[in-house]
Design goal:
793 residues; rod-shaped; Immunoglobulin-like; four-stranded mixed β-sheet; 6 domains; 7 helices; single chain; five-stranded mixed β-sheet; mainly beta
Length: 793
Amino acid sequence: MANSALDNAIAFSRFAFMILGCTMGLISGQIRYSIPEEMELGAFVGNIAEDLRLNVPQLSARKLRLTSDNGGQYMKVNLDSGFLYIHERIDREFLCGPATMCTIPFEIILENPLTVHRVEVEILDVNDNRPTFRDSAVALQIAETIAPGIRFPLVSAEDPDIGINTVAAYIISSNEYFNLKAQRTENGVISAELQLEKPLDREMQSAFQLILTATDGGIPQRSGTTQILITVVDVNDNPPVFDHEIYKGSLIESVPKGTMVMKVKANDLDEGLNAEITYSFSKLTSPKVLELFSLNPHTGEIRVAGELDYEETSSYSLNVQAVDHGSPAIAGHSKVFIKVIDVNDNAPEIKVTSVTSKIPENAPPGTLISLLNVIDRDSGENGQFHCDVPKNIPFRIRMSSKNHFELITSDLLDREVVAEYKIPFVARDLGLPSLSTNKSIHVVISDVNDNAPQFGASSFNIYIMENNSPGSSIFAVTAKDRDMDQNSHISYSFLENLVQDFPVSTYLSINTMNGTIYALRSFDYEELKAFQLHIQARDAGVPPLSSSATVNVIILDQNDNAPVIVSPSAHSAPTAVEIVPQSAAQGYLVTKIMATDADSGQNARLFYQMVKATDPSLFNIGENSGEIRTARKILESDTTTQTLFILVKDNGRPSRSSSVTMQIAVLQNITEKVTGKSLRNSEYFPDLNLYLIIIFGCTSVLFLVIILLLIGMKYKQNTNISQEYYSPSCRGDSNCTFNRRPAMEETLRYPGTGRMIHVQEAQHYSVCLSPESAKSDFLFLKPCSAPMSQAQC
């Protein structure tokens, strides 16, 4: 029940501290809160968003974070609400010890723009510790001859709390012989002494058992007890007495071990063994003091036994007692206060909070680079310091608050001149001798996107052989960017361009990373000879920069088309039939083989060859012209039906060819009818059929004459044009030949490249009208393929 009431009282005190102590003040640019210790995790400390005059969404957008000098993470900020709350248990006694003021300093850093706010959270003490005694019982031996008024020092209680929450009073159980006297020492500690009020009589009462209670001043009040066991002894009625009730001395913290601090001296009015004295530290002396100091039991010399540290403890209190050798022994007591003098044995400590490891080269002067916290644990001038950086670099130090510095830029930066800096930051104290600490701060100057990618040339020519394999690489373009990192990462793409009304992306693709160009289809020179496109190189900077280059794609011809014989037509009959009068002289033009090739250049240059003939000596063919002429005069003994096998091949590598079979009928009368394969003898025909053939032949000749007259009238005005290409020359009544003009070179132009390729001009001919055999019983005649002169065959 008592414990429950005590806990309720503690909770009430904490609540009161939260209501009254959680206040914020803006002092010298700092935000300050006050909270009691031992608050539960997640407890509210303050509204950071409101105190910084920020909207809650800005906390996440500006990447709010906390940095603490001591590395502790006692506080956290809820970015969703802007509240500062308890993240770890806070024990003021563990955090600050006996210090009167206990604060947790940290910094709040916001980016975009970069701002730093100093925050201190003062930790208020609550009465969460009760006074405790080192021993549960203290034994005293007091001679019955001791006069009233003598005081006996008692062990002090310890309470880690501070202020009113620490030991405030001592109470002893009620009795008629002893009273309690309390006094406050120089260091603010209350010590208790037991004072004899009336003479003792061992025979009446040889022992006493008292309860010593120590209470603090907190709310609720806490207390601790110990027993005092007093034994009344006889004889030796004079205690040793020290020369001074309190001894004071000082030492510099760097004194070596064994250095004598001081010498205490006590005298005993007794004689003999009762006057012999042994010096020692009393039980009231703390274990830490026993490690640092030693006391000679015979001479009373106090010497340094350990290493002193002013930064840890600036003064020590020693309880010394002198005990005689009487029976019972009586002790005298004294206090020794030793002050430690600081020496400059601590160099400044530098803690760097790197805010920006990279800064752009266009950062203006005054840009914050890093935050630095410098601490010197020494005191006085030994704890004062100054900081600097070299003067030949574009950086300087600016003090933001006590012990806090900012490294900022002092001039414009140029990454092309210096890409990074290692800035030596030096903190030097004012002690003698002076101590210093160096800290190297690495700053990288980041690039800004001020250079566009550049191609090696403004235009490129790509030559692709037709019938290429789809998906194969055909070319690679490369651009370079003088910037670095993301600003130099280049991606390649095609600019909008149409090829034969289709986007260029349907023909080619480009690897955006390395600029390799791939063909997406197999090209056909006969359909597409050349086209132009534009490639863009774009970096990844913000904003991105780009440049472009022109690419001329030229399709090279391949001999992939065989010659096509267009005359005689392969559609009219499987074998072409021509008629030659038996009276034809040498050089008589029988017919002309006409062929075309879809390829160009040498691949389209055609050659004509007679592979097989019934009589090879009777006919020959022009290698380049394809004209079949009589090689000699036709004799009566020659076979009336001549079969020729003509081969037409191109000049490609490898060469391609086509063939045609010609049947030539030698007739005395040109109007005689010829069948598809051989001439029929008249003996096989009935007389009626023979008459019909003669009638139709005459009609055909009359119809031919009419057609020739109409053609001559229609093309009379074009005689000059016709003569430009062909000059007719008729030798004989029935023989007619045409002289073709010298071959001209044909120029192939590739659009957009400026390149011309010269090839031999294809041969052009105009042939005489010649009858073409038909599958019917009628004889038809073919018109010339070019304008004719008055010469007729």
